[in-house]
Amino acid sequence: MSGVFDAPGEWLRGNLHLHTTNSDGELAPQQAVDGYAEQGYDFLSITDHDVVTDPDELDSRGMTLLPGVEIAPPGAELGQTIHCVGIGPSAEPSTLEADTAVAAIGRLVDLCEACFVAHPSWSSVTFADILPIEGIIGLEVFNCTCRRGIGRGLSEVQWDDLLARGRRLLGLAVDDAHRHYDDLYGGWIMLRAQDRSPDAICEALRAGHFYATQGPEIRDVTIDGESLHIECSPCVEVFAVCPTPGRGTTNWRHGGGRSEQQSFDLQLRPGTDPFRVVVVDAHGNRAWTNPYWLD
Fold it and tell me: Which end of the chain, N or C, is less surrounded by CB atoms within 10 Å?
């Protein structure tokens, strides 16, 4: 999952969670496509609740459009539903009736090219809710509408809790825009794919050949033993975050400050495994690599 910066192909910008008037969003599907195309996105998935919007019925405006869907079966620890996004479903989600949330999401996994858990923080979904779900590729580490709507867009804690328990899950940033307020173009993934076809995008997604961002660019990550070198757009903080107790490091630990830099060198302490890299710009916007396992 850590080979994105060495992977062949081109960088593509994409959003994989979006709602339209086909469910509870305020933009018509074509309006949404037009907006993302004008913002320079390369791929997009409309993921309305319980219904699949056919990309063939839309003018793609030069983007790759991936069919998608979101389901929300009940059964979380605190009484909430567990939302899950499926990319590339082969059938309508009406076939997903099941006794438990784990079973319903398992059936979605069987229908789709890739599935991930949506906005754990917004849903008050815990790591224990996600732990038994098999076949998902990851979860949303950042959700724009949840940040701008209720201030709970970050789900780093749930991600780390799962990593610490051996789940090798990826982290995505998304908009989840409904357009009830300004929740567009705030989180996306930068994905390294062989080409712009749906198959190539889904293959790169499953392989973890992407990073998640609110704006900063991560240009390279190099590991040499316990030395870590990061290249990025101008940022003031860099973290190597490890979910095991007392591990990880930052540029502050190595004498850094809040001056902008485009390269950082960190020294990992023994036992920092797995870890993920986070960069933060002067405005507080973040970007996240997927986890690195040193084994």
Answer: C
